[in-house]
């Protein structure tokens, strides 16, 4: 969607346009209600500012839209298309190690492993997963929020065009 269309859209339509980035109601409302934006940069700055308020409970509630790392998202939704585009291909050995790491991560932390996959190789993702399995829950909560913020802002940058 281009910025002009986003600015002019009905509120529900504008909120829906942002939802694939991060389904966090307060963030969606704050970013949408600050329209109109003069530039995409202004929109991104506001979105980043509003994401600073996120807590781990907000992110955990929104993680239902994210597939596990290493799994291809099913469906034709914007979220599924974005996820498929972000995840790098993996050789069978790396894919199996990521799958095993995902299961261990979920047992340890009670949520899916979340990492910004865009721009990373499967080996980079496996290294991050392995390293993060050693974290305490408090440390990991902060990392998850930061990773979700990175993903959301990258997606927003790709969804709203000048």
Give an overview of the whole structure.
There is one protein chain. The chain has 162 residues and is mainly α. It has a single domain, classed as Orthogonal Bundle (UraD-like). The protein is 64% helix and 0% strand. It is built from nine helices and no strands. α2 packs across α3, α4 packs antiparallel against α9 and α7 packs parallel to α8. The termini are close together.
Domain count: the total is: 1
Mean pLDDT across residues: 91
Number of helices: 9
Order of helices and strands: HHHHHHHHH
Low-confidence stretches: none
What is the molecular shape?
elongated
Identify the CATH architecture.
Orthogonal Bundle
CATH C-level: Mainly Alpha
Which class do the helix and strand fractions yield? mainly alpha
Main sheet summary: none
- Assembly form of the protein: single chain
Residues in helix, % = 55-70%
CATH fold-level name: UraD-like
Percent strand: under 5%
CATH H-level homologous superfamily name: Oxo-4-hydroxy-4-carboxy-5-ureidoimidazoline decarboxylase
Radius of gyration: 16 Å
Work out the number of β strands: 0
Distance between the termini: 9 Å
SSE topology:
Blueprint: H1 3-8, H2 11-18, H3 25-33, H4 40-51, H5 56-62, H6 78-86, H7 92-109, H8 122-132, H9 137-159
Quick structural summary:
With 162 residues, the chain is mainly α. It has helices spanning 3-8, 11-18, 25-33, 40-51, 56-62, 78-86, 92-109, 122-132, 137-159. Helix 2 packs across helix 3.
Q: Which key phrases capture this entry?
A:
mainly alpha; 162 residues; UraD-like; 9 helices
């Amino acid at each position: 969607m281009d910025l002009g269309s986003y600015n002019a859209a009905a509120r529900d339509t504008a909120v829906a346009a942002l939802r694939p980035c991060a389904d966090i109601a307060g963030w969606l409302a704050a970013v949408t209600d600050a329209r109109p934006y003069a530039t995409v940069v202004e929109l991104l700055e506001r979105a980043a500012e509003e994401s600073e308020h996120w807590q781990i409970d907000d992110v955990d509630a929104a993680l239902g839209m994210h597939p596990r790392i290493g799994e291809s998202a099913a469906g034709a939704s914007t979220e599924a298309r974005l996820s498929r585009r972000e995840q790098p291909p993996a050789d069978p050995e790396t894919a199996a190690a990521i799958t095993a790491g995902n299961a261990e991560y979920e047992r340890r932390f009670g949520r899916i492993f979340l990492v910004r996959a865009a721009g990373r190789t499967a080996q980079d993702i496996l290294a991050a997963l392995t390293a993060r399995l050693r974290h305490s829950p408090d440390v990991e909560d902060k990392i998850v929020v930061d990773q979700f913020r990175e993903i959301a802002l990258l997606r927003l940058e790709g969804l709203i065009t000048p």
